[in-house]
Amino acid sequence: MAQKNIVVVGAGVIGISSALLLRKAGHAVTIIARDFPAPFETIDPINQINYTSPWGGAHNRWVPPSPAQPHTALEHPLSLSTYSHMKKLHSLHPQTAGITFLPGIEYLESPPPEYLSLSSPTDPVARSLASLCGFRVLPPSSHPDAKVKWACEYETYCVNPMVYLTFLLRRFFHQGGKIVRQELRSISEVFALRPAEDLLLGQPSSSSSSQCARIDAVVNASGTNFGQDPDVFVTRGQTVLVAEECDATVTRQNSDGSWTFSVPRGFEGGTVIGGTKEVGNWDVKPDPKVREELLKKFGETYPKIFKEGGKKELTVLRDIVGRRPTRKGGPRIEGEVLDAQGGGGGGGGGFVMHAYGLGGRGYELSWGVAEKVVEGVEKYFQGQEEEAKAKL
Ligand SMILES: Cc1cc2nc3c(=O)[nH]c(=O)nc-3n(C[C@H](O)[C@H](O)[C@H](O)COP(=O)(O)OP(=O)(O)OC[C@H]3O[C@@H](n4cnc5c(N)ncnc54)[C@H](O)[C@@H]3O)c2cc1C
After folding, report:
1. Same domain, 144 and 255
2. Ligand 1 lined by 153 (C-beta under 6 Å)
3. What is the extent of the structural domain holding 104?
4. 3-class SS string, the chain
5. Domain FAD dependent oxidoreductase, which positions (predicted)?
6. Does residue 35's CB lie within 6 angstroms of at least one atom of ligand 1?
7. Are residues 343 and 358 in the same domain?
8. Would the CB of 54 count as within 6 Å of ligand 1?
């Protein structure tokens, strides 16, 4: 396929992963975004709260497909593909990619049926995970207390979000990708931006050029689709970063619906202790009472985090508040042709591949989503070529 000019809107984990794979597929790719990865310590907790990627843990935790939530069946293969990509990246760049492989432990007080099925040796999901990452159900003797009714352990990964994303962005740049910082009003605005030549790699700006550069496709990795999708909502997460490095990523689902977890960030990034999942809560301020509760509950579930005997307090570095870009029915990963009015959003028309609404799973689904983006964009180009041939 001939090289195409593609603009990716968004420099979170979804935008950067997609941009890298599109570049690898041979296209001229430009990332446009308001926010870019930077050292975590410099990301502003209020001005940049809508840039979710810095505030994520981020660990991989398997979510078995559930009939009650049909999108989980579509997401599972994306998480498997992401796992393999992370494994490869980690083995090639163990010191720089910001990825750590370590034990993942899960404790559930009220396990739903799709978790209980994983206890069966013939369950297909459990079997594939057993060979991929040593997944095994833990015996009751290893539960932390009697409230826990089901537990498992497997080898998984955590990323230090800003170390990981700056690593990916640097690779994108080294591989010839272009980066533009700009705030947009809508996805269709890309088609109407300043001379397209300025944005594109494939056709450098030239006043003598008689032919105008064209944007062949836009990827919408804006997290929330500019507030223009009624199915998108925020799920607030409050966590706390401590200096101690936990030796595992531990997740406990409590029967009252609350969560207790640790996500060691590695690369001297401490450990995130979490966390809340508050649908529709836009509050930017951390609640000190929530912080105390999160630390207490985690210490009770996993006292191994107190490495020195007798120590019962963790070293708090800072509170974290983030907004998971959640979408009713799961993420939107599909193509759409906008008309010249930008599908009603103004701006301009053209092909848009949507990849937003990843909720609390952006990292663990990222490479699977990026593969779908490449697939969707190339399918569109192929259709265009076939249409053009048919007209000859
Ligand atoms: C507390 C917490 C814990 C989490 N833990 C995990 C975890 O353990 N594992 C996991 O997989 N996920 C986790 N997540 C979820 C994960 O962080 C998100 O799913 C992921 O970061 C979403 O990435 P994104 O690229 O879609 O969006 P974002 O990171 O929000 O990126 C959006 C991009 O679009 C750009 N953009 C948006 N609007 C505009 C505009 N108007 N003009 C120009 N650019 C624009 C932004 O500048 C940014 O570059 C967690 C999230 C939170 C809050």
Report:
1. yes
2. no
3. 98-157+233-324
4. CCCCEEEEECCCHHHHHHHHHHHHCCCEEEEEECCCCCCHHHCCCCCCCCCCHHHCCCECCCCCCECCECHHHHHHHHHHHHHHHHHHHHHHCCCCCCEEEEEEEEEECCCCHHHHHHHCCCCHHHHHHHHHHCCEECCHHHCCCCCCCEEEEEEEEEECHHHHHHHHHHHHHHCCCEEEECCCCCHHHHHHCCCHHHHCCCCCCCCCCCCCCCCCEEEECCCCHHHCCCCEEEEEEEEEEECCCCCCEEEEECCCCCEEEEEECCCCCCEEEECCCEECCCCCCCCHHHHHHHHHHHHHHCHHHCCCCCCCCCCEEEEEEEEEEEECCCCEEEEEEECCCCCCCCCCCEEEEEEECCHHHHHHHHHHHHHHHHHHHHHHHHHHHHHHHHHC
5. 6-374
6. yes
7. yes
8. no
Residue 84 resides in a domain: no
Residue 81: inside a domain: no
**pLDDT tens-digit readout, 110-168:** 999 999 999 998 999 999 999 999 999 999 999 999 999 999 999 999 999 999 999 99
Last residue within a domain, chosen from 277, 301, 324:
324
Check if 213 has its Cβ closer than 6 Å to any atom of ligand 1: no
Nearest CA to ligand 1 atom 51: 56
pLDDT digits (tens, 9 = 90+) for 286-306: 999 999 999 999 999 999 999
Q: Which atom of ligand 1 is nearest to the CA of 235?
A: 53
Index of the ligand 1 atom closest to the CA of residue 182: 43
Q: Is the domain of 334 the same as that of 373?
A: yes
pLDDT in tens, 55-110: 999 999 999 999 999 999 999 999 999 999 999 999 999 999 999 999 999 999 99
Q: Is 34 in the pocket of ligand 1 (CB under 6 A)?
A: yes
In a domain, 356, yes or no: yes
Q: How far is the CA of 313 from the centre of ligand 1 (A)?
A: 31
